[in-house]
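step=encode ok
step=design start
structure_in=
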C-alpha cells in the first residue's frame, strides 16, 4: 500500500511539474483547474487504495470493491468534466477546452494504468 501511495504521489508531482513547465514554455495558458484535476485524481486514487487495502485478504470482496470503486471514479470524472464545461469554460477559448480535455484524459489513463499495473504486480507477490 505504501508503495502505491508513493507511486501516486510521484505521478501527481510529475504532472504538476509538467504543467508548470508547459505554463512557462508552452503556447496555451495553464489554469488552476488543471492543478485541481491532478489533486482530484490523486485524492480518488488515495481513497481507492485505502479502501482496497482493507479487503486484500478476501479476493471476492476485493474484486467487487475494486470494480465498484472504478465505476465510481469514472462517474465522478464525468461529473468533473461536466462541471468544468458548464461552469468554468465560459471564459476560455476552444483551444483551452481541448487542451484541458486532453490533459484530463491523459491524467485519468495514467492514474488508471499505474494503479492497475501496481495492483496486479503486488497480487503476484
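sequence_out=
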Amino acid at each position: 500500500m505504501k508503495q502505491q501511495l508513493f507511486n501516486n504521489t510521484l505521478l501527481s508531482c510529475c504532472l504538476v511539474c509538467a504543467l508548470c513547465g508547459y505554463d512557462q514554455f508552452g503556447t496555451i495558458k495553464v489554469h488552476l483547474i488543471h492543478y485541481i484535476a491532478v489533486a482530484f485524481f490523486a485524492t480518488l486514487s488515495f481513497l481507492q487504495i485505502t479502501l482496497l487495502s482493507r479487503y486484500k485478504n478476501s479476493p471476492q470482496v476485493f474484486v467487487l470493491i475494486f470494480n465498484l470503486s472504478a465505476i465510481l471514479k469514472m462517474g465522478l470524472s464525468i461529473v468533473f468534466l461536466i462541471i468544468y464545461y458548464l461552469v468554468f469554460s465560459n471564459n476560455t477559448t476552444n483551444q483551452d477546452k481541448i487542451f484541458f480535455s486532453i490533459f484530463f484524459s491523459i491524467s485519468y489513463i495514467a492514474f488508471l494504468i499505474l494503479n492497475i499495473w501496481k495492483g496486479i504486480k503486488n497480487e503476484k507477490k
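step=design ok
step=annotate ok -> The chain has a mean pLDDT of 87.
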